[in-house]
Amino acid sequence: MADNTNTNTNENTESQGVGVAQSPIFTGRKTIYWDPVDEAKLSDIDVLYIVEQTMIEHEINRDEMVYLRNYERGDQPIFYRVKDIRPEINTKVLSNYAKMITDFNIGYEFGSPIMFVQRASDDFTKADPNQDDKRVSTLNEMMWEQGKVGKDIEMAHDIKTTGLGYMMAYPKLEDSEDIAPFDLLVLNPLNTYVVRKNDAYKRKLMGVTYSFNERTQVKRITAYTRFWIYSIVGGVVVSKVPNILKIIPIVEFRNDANKMACFEAVIPLMDALNIANSDRVNDLAQYVQAILWLHNCEIDEKQQRELRDGGFIQTTSTAEGKEAKVTYVTASLNQAETQALTDDLYNRMLEIAGVPGRDSAAGGNTGAAILLSNGWQLAETKAKTMEPIFSESEMELLDVIIAILRNTSEIPEELKQLKRSDVLVKFSRNKTYDLVSRTSALSNLINIGIDPHHAIPAVDIFDDNQQVVLDSLEMINALLLAKTQKQDSSADPSNGNGTPVDGVKGANDYNAEQNRENEPAE
Fold this sequence. Notes:
By secondary structure, this protein is of the alpha+beta class. It has helices spanning 44-73, 97-110, 129-145, 148-162, 267-288, 301-310, 335-353, 367-372, 376-406, 413-416, 435-447, 452-459, 465-491, 507-518, and strands at residues 14-16, 20-22, 33-34, 115-118, 164-171, 182-187, 192-197, 204-213, 218-224, 228-233, 236-242, 250-254, 291-295, 325-329, 423-426.
């Protein structure tokens, strides 16, 4: 998410040894905990103290997130490199692998809309499955109206570059013709955090978001608890209002269990690649600008100008018989060995980051072969690992939305009955290949009696599986009914009138033969 905070700093980079600037070592963002307390009994002073103390821990996370965000934008240690030998030749080549990894992760995991689908047609609540269909479809319509697809991508950039992202659902403050009674807001992770109780449940104690006015140097903080919403300015609670939702509306999303950025684990490899690429260009520049060595000869300023302008010099042997020599002092890198090193670093970086290579597929060019080659299967496995973590936060957001629906009088009663157990978060990827096989699989699944709510998501063709089920259910049922009736008709050997089908005698034919055998002979 874009912000106006001045983050153009790289104070953690240091020139070491031969002038190689090193990135700091990060291991993910810290979870902010507080001892369990009774939220209903928190006083204004208690809230101020909790915000003051937890803000210190948040600032540590914030500094790391600022560095990672700047790193992804291109502010990397290679630009702070100091070269001690021939400092005038110090080319700084940046290959922004961090942005490449980030863009791939966002596109692969969030490029297709993340939708809600009905979890089951039949469960222990004995709810009407058709009613659940309508509720979930209405929920998706509200999300679409709020532009959740775009906001997911906006938040995904925060998640992938800093390890954390925040989204808030809040009741609309103004009258609107929208069907959604809430607004979805993407919050800046640099200015937002949640405090969790330090116990086995680790439930949210408080959600905090703030803004800082550079001109007035005033920080405005909004702290949400289950019972109150506090406005804090200058370390003083200026107002508090009841939280009618009885739920903290700020939801924290994590990139992984350690809250690391998607490229954080490979920062040392990316720095090494930038150094190697810069030194290869430096090697070329130093070869072109090689030092001229004069042995047993001297030249004056006029000869230096002639050498520079004409490009040649004339020498003679000395009287003592010493031979004059003029040559360039050069030492070039072994490009083959350097290329092998950079290839090894690059491949390791891709493997650890879970990004596919750019080589051609081995073993065939079918969709399945491409998926299994060059790291695509690793990328899919990594994305699958992310899905449960993201879904956990998405269900927290759904809890907030359900609370808003139940506190809005204009919402129909049947929609207020929506429960989180009715909903499943559906991720969609890899829709463009092997379409014939997947549609055939869908047909087979439905024909053997698999519920469309499970068969359609299984083949992963559509973005909004829930709407596809609603739009197609009547046609699917009609086709299955017609097929069943045809099978029943074909299964009767007599075809209902005693006429053999495919040479098979029906029951009426056997009865007729039996009657003829029992008739008396004439």
